[in-house]
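Suppose you are handed a protein chain with no further information: no name, no annotation, nothing but its sequence. What can you learn? This example shows the usual starting point.
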Amino acid sequence: MRVPTVPVLLTTALLLSLAGCLVESTLDEKGGGTLKTEVRGGPNDTIDKIKARFTGAGVEITKATMDDKKNAVVELKYDDFAKLGALKQYENVTFTLTEDLKAKTRTATAVAKYARPVTLPEDQLKYFGSDVALALTVPGEIVKTDGKSKGKTATWGMPLNTLLSTPTSTFSVTYKHDGPPLAKKDAAPAGTPAAGTPVAGTPAAGTPHAKAASAPAK
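A reasonable first move is to predict its three-dimensional structure. Written in structure tokens, the prediction is:
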């Protein structure tokens, strides 16, 4: 396949929030878990550049590979679901894990926001992949999800352009939990935006500007 000449703006933009061929995560009883993602890097990306996007407090990369076609696989484990939003890779996404002690349930949610939604041209979709597949396996029986569920796994699938052209996309799953409550976390200072939440009025980092969609594909 001919390698497109992706604009410099898009070499990181397509390795962005939730985008890629596959993102799989597994939550444990304490709110931590594992994550595996398969993405395609830009022509100038190296495995070190890709690993840097998954590096953060409370997160350990356990595997990272990239072949000669820039297809990368990154696996990691994290001690807090919410900390995924502090990673460069997911800076457009806010991750939360809440619980209802009375109902004995927990809800894991990822909200992806794009300040300047765009539609990518066909050549770029062929290079990076035209669809996004997400999966989250939880430690209890699924009660409700806005995706599809089978056993303890919730899944979502959509065209990449649908994700990028939608200002806000939410992925949520509620599951049964009878164990101890989540450990309390220190509250963020007043006025501090949640990790991964773009500042109002500014384009989310790594998000293509509207004019990027009409840029010549490489």
